[in-house]
């Protein structure tokens, strides 16, 4: 792999997209659609400009930084005040809908892939449970859509990553234990240590780092332009410090963001500015790498069973659990279906599956799992990208801003 060619290509694509992004958005063509499509075009499936190994250090670094920044920003931008006043819908989605989705995804996988080990099928369900609000950006950023609906979708997307990740670690540890590659310590201890140490380190880094910024700002010591860099540094510091102290760096990044974004309003503002520019760049690069590196090596394992499961994952396996979780609320059916549909599979699934590849050491034995994730994400990029703005416009015409349902 020529990393310099990849970097040059990414720079050219960013330039091109920057020039025409507004025009493309009017055609309901999203950034993830463009970057994934160009990745496919330049991959061995297209004109074969360059090849990238999924487990290459270059890819791993991009993936880690992207996920760290996404988790940090998602947590920091959670509106806890709004969440306190309209907490019931996100709570239903996360604590009723999410577990049902995992169970339903596992049972459907057992039916479609009866020869696969149960742990692999649970892994598949977990990889496809987190949602990605970025693929429905037109929905969560459209002021015509009631704020509490946008917030509910955002909160679900921001928190389900953090809820799923410990479960993912548990299943990975179980699989490695079965293959004799696990840590010397028992997997329960390992997972508990990863979660607890990660959360503690992240909370401490986020809280102390932001308090230090408050002090520096009050003494007029920190230049405004450099204050935009401090949250980025806190996210990366939390990640690597937690990894050094036997915690999970991604969980640390999430908790660091949670404290940083809700400790000091100016920090939250800086993080929001970053998430809309540099943070989105890393996300788009991840979609490019997905199209360039991941899709070509998994395409050979795509079967009709893989396509069937992917279709079910994006529709009934997502939408029915959400509708069940919202049963008993005062929401009308169209609102339930609107929230249910906008559970795209994107950046979290891509990054988590690449982390799984890294942890497992190779793709051997999990080809079906990776093929399903590939097809599901590709379908989601296309269908949610094309439908986001039209459905947001249609929903907004039928529903004016109204108080959140907390009953």
UniProtKB/TrEMBL annotation:
It is found in: Cell membrane. Residues 13-393 form the Cation/H+ exchanger transmembrane domain. It is a multi-pass membrane protein. Signal peptide: none annotated. Keywords: Antiport, Ion transport, Membrane, Transmembrane, Transmembrane helix, Transport. Pfam families: Na_H_Exchanger. It comes from the Bacteria. The chain crosses the membrane at residues 6-21, 33-52, 58-80, 92-113, 158-176, 188-209, 229-260, 281-301, 307-326, 338-357, 369-388. PANTHER family: CNH1P, NA(+)/H(+) ANTIPORTER 1. This is Sodium:proton antiporter. It comes from Shewanella colwelliana. The lineage of its organism: Bacteria, Pseudomonadati, Pseudomonadota, Gammaproteobacteria, Alteromonadales.
């Amino acid at each position: 792999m020529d990393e310099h060619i990849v970097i040059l290509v990414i720079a050219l694509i960013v330039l091109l997209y920057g020039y025409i992004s507004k025009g493309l958005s009017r055609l309901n063509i999203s950034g993830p659609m463009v970057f994934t499509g160009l990745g496919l075009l330049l991959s061995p499936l297209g004109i074969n400009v360059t090849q990238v190994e999924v487990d290459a250090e270059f890819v791993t670094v991009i993936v880690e930084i992207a996920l760290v920044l996404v988790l940090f920003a998602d947590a920091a931008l959670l509106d806890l005040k709004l969440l306190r006043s309209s907490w019931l819908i996100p709570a239903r989605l996360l604590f009723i809908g999410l577990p049902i989705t995992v169970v339903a995804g596992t049972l459907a996988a057992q039916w479609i892939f009866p020869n696969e080990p149960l742990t692999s099928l649970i892994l598949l369900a977990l990889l496809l449970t987190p949602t990605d609000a970025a693929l429905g950006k037109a929905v969560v950023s459209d002021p015509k859509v009631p704020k509490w609906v946008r917030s509910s979708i955002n909160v679900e997307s921001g928190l389900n990553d953090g809820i799923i990740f410990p479960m993912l670690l548990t299943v990975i540890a179980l699989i490695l234990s079965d293959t004799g590659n696990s840590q010397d310590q028992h997997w329960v201890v390992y997972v508990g240590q990863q979660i607890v140490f990660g959360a503690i380190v992240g909370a401490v880094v986020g809280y102390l780092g932001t308090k230090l910024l408050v002090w520096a700002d009050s003494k007029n010591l920190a230049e405004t332009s450099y204050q935009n860099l401090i949250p980025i540094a806190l996210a990366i510091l939390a990640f690597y410090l937690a990894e050094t102290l036997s915690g999970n760096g991604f969980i640390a990044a999430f908790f660091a963001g949670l404290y940083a974004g809700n400790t000091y309003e100016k920090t939250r503002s800086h993080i929001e500015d970053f998430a809309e520019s540099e943070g989105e760049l890393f996300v788009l690069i991840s979609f490019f790498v997905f199209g360039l590196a991941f899709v070509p090596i998994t395409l050979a394992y795509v079967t009709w069973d893989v396509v069937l499961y992917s279709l079910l994952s994006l529709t009934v396996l997502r939408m029915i659990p959400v509708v069940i979780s919202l049963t008993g609320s005062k929401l009308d059916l169209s609102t339930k279906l609107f929230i249910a549909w906008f559970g795209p599979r994107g950046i979290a699934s891509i990054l988590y599956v690449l982390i799984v590849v890294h942890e497992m050491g190779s793709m051997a034995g999990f080809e079906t799992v990776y093929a399903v994730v590939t097809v599901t994400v590709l379908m989601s990029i296309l269908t949610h990208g094309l439908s986001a703005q039209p459905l947001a416009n249609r929903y907004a015409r039928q529903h004016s801003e109204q108080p959140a349902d907390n009953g």
